[in-house]
Amino acid sequence: MSEAARDPSPGAPPAVAAAASEEKKGKEPEREKLPPIVSAGAAAGLDRGSKGQISTFSSFVSTVTQKKEAAENRSSPAHLALPNIRNVRDLPPICLDVRQKQRMSMDALPSEVKGPAFAEPTLPSQPKSVKDFEEDLEKAESTGNWKTVHAFYITTFDSFPELNAAFKKDATASFNTVEDSGVNADLVNAVFDALLNTPQDIQKSVLKGIINSLLREWKGPRTKDDLRAYFILLQNPQFNITSTYVIYAHLLRQIATLVEADHHFLVHWLKKLSQKKFKQLVERLLQFVSLRLFPAKPEEFPPLTKCSWWIPSASKVLALLNTANNLIHPPLIPYTDFYNSTLDHIDLMEEYHTWQSFGNSHRFSFCQYPFVISIAAKKIIIQRDSEQQMISIARQSLVDKVSRRQRPDMNMLFLNMKVRRTHLVSDSLDELTRKRADLKKKLKVTFVGEAGLDMGGLTKEWFLLLTRQIFHPDYGMFTYHKDSNCHWFSSFKCDNYSEFRLVGIYA
Questions:
Q1: What is the annotated signal peptide range for this record (predicted)?
Q2: I need a labelling partner for 183 at 20 to 30 A (CA). Which of 52, 226, 338, 407 fits?
Q3: For residue range 276-298, what is the model confidence (pLDDT) as tens digits?
Q4: What is the residue extent of each domain of the chain?
Q5: Would you list the DSSP string of 274-292?
Q6: Rounded to whole angstroms, what are the CA distances from 391 to 25, 347, 406, 411, 414?
Q7: Under 8 Å CB-to-CB from 473, ≥6 apart: which residues?
Q8: The domain 409-506 belongs to what CATH superfamily?
């Protein structure tokens, strides 16, 4: 937990504050199971925000890295090539500051590596229906004795096997299919809906149990029960509270570093959530990213140089949710619900240039996840990139002219169009065809037989006249549909598609 979590502000919920102090008392041997955190703020291009206190939960693990580094280098398994999985295979790779030892799925291990099969761990037997839980809750509220409810929460969130024992429809079934997660969604909803209204010590116990689960479950191949546990923990409403963000970040990191086959299962399970729950997950992740970029209280979080993996991890999980949303027709939520308006206030061109330079490599950029960037932000990126390309092409033309010892001409800096009003479309098409090398230069229009300099007015008039002529019904290129108020390609057979190419360049 962070310093802010161990010494919370007066405004922090008491349950979270108590959970923070309990975590400090946790067993040190269990802490050494946490994955190492690589400090790569500069490499991730995320050096934003002010510095705060470094969390004990995060900083302690950094020291463990040095102790384990040599052993990991000697004993790390060979990289296993996984088959491409449809729907999630095109997601951007994990950034260097997120990628630790990427976990292997048990199903992905080749037969020669698996070795002798071990018996499945015996799951604790803790059957409880929604009705049983609600009766215990009502009794606790009426009598003030929360012992039974407290015991349920402590036991359920103590480990991944306990989570499966409590929330699986059938503890003896495997549910190893993408179609059914095997999770009792009604019980999960009831337990989490009641959680924030329980006494502080219960909420504290749940957070402590999650910490212990994440520490304990780091090593070893992933089973479907592990995936179910991640699927359940993602829905915890306590992660709406900023004081729990250190725990939430480690949960997101473990999910982000799962192998592609495991992501495939999670995507198909996520699409089965209700619209309300699905939207809550998306909003929670967007808020997490926004508050990490622009924290209201910077002292609540570790400095970005120490937790640069937070935002890439959250973005990866958002990508899984976006993929799940796109598998449903109609989608669970509109695509605009994935937009993060906070990104409108960062240096978008820096993000764009990082993406242009490194692509979908291990250098993080929000442009790797375009579904979170709003239309307004994308418009700014495209417009500025276009302007920069115009300047770059014009400069290169000037350099080429000088290098050949020719006299520079100002007209070479522009895409010069000379057209006749009576033959506007054909002349424009001819000019664009002949001057393909100049298409990225700034446009300058001259009407034949008319005196005048194009200071922007003639170009504007050219666009206006060309638009009217191209979309006029008598011209036959497009048909107007009254129902949708849109133009669409005409159904008439066309022998010459060059004019449609002109429309593409023009657009």
A1: none
A2: 338
A3: 999 999 999 999 999 999 988 88
A4: 3-69+83-106+121-335, 339-408, 409-506
A5: -HHHHHHHHHHHHHHHHHH
A6: 61, 20, 20, 14, 10
A7: 479, 480
A8: Hect, E3 ligase catalytic domains (3.90.1750.10)
